[in-house]
Amino acid sequence: MTDIKQKTTAPAGEHSRRVVGTVGLYLGVALLGLLLIHATYGISWSMPRSWYRDQPLWGALSFTLIGIGWWLLRQRPASETVWTPSKPGLRFNNVTLYTRVGCHLCDDSLELLEGYRSYLPPIEEVDIDADPQLQGQFDTCVPVVEIDGKVRFRGKVDEVLLRRLIEGTPPHVM
Question: TM spans, by residue (predicted)?
Answer without folding.
Answer: 20-43, 55-73
